[in-house]
Design a protein that fits this description.
Length: about 325
Amino acid sequence: MSARGSTPRPPASKRPRTPIPELDPAAVAVTASVIRIYDAFLRQPNLSPSPGVNAIFSELVSLCVRPYSSSTVSDILSDPHIREIAAKLRKTCSTGEYLLENHWAAQILASSNAAKPLRPAHAALRAFPYFQNYMELARLELQAISSVHPHRIASVAFIGSGPLPLTSLCFSALLSPPPERLHNIDNSARAIAASSQLCAKLARTASGAGAMAAGRLTFQLADAAAVQDLGSFEVVFLAGLVGDTEAEKRKILANVAGRCAAGSLLVLRSAHGLRKLLYQEIDVGALQGFGLEVLLVVHPWNRVVNSVVVCRVVGTGVRGKL
């Protein structure tokens, strides 16, 4: 009973409280692992191949290629700490990949059939840690191309071939007959020198027509944003590591698409899911602005990292945004 003259207390509100969303345990764990891995990179004196650096990269790749739900991926990529380090992590991967390939190119060039009869140049190439991954990616890309271009591929240009032109070497092994032209373009004089010497050695040490027809590969030192002579190629590839930022990739893609022949195919390497921490994603919906018709997009769920985007060059639009 209330005291005389007092106002009765209103009943408590029955409006349900807004529940606080629970954190996804998987997202929390993976986010912590990515941050720990990035910090481990920062503690390394450099990113040249070493047991420590190799182990860190292996853990990162293994973490990123696992299947996660779309909500888990969204939670991880939207985390403020991940957003802060994502571009830096991709740059770290780019630098590490270049140094790894450069190291192995030097290893293969140093191999001698006379001194190491059980480890000739071709065997040394196949010992590259990610050789099988490149073979699987090459098969995936060739199958994607064949679904929209069921004809022999006579000429291919690969922009961003690096010191170890594995994609071109894999194509020369997988395609029968191999393309008449497998042209490799890179803006690093050191990479072009290493790759051309390496392929010359592979061609000399091959038996018969050559296990990988390495002698068919040609090389050109040129910047991707300024390369001119792409009109004679049926298929042009743009490596995933070409262009460190979205702005650079837009500039390069505009130039490349504008210099390809109408009707030719432009194949781009992108990324999906957590693989976007390793490679820059390409906004497929924006490619029409570059004069490209998207024909096919393939997202692998196995140990292959890159997604494959196959486009046909149809116009000269160069103002698109990724």
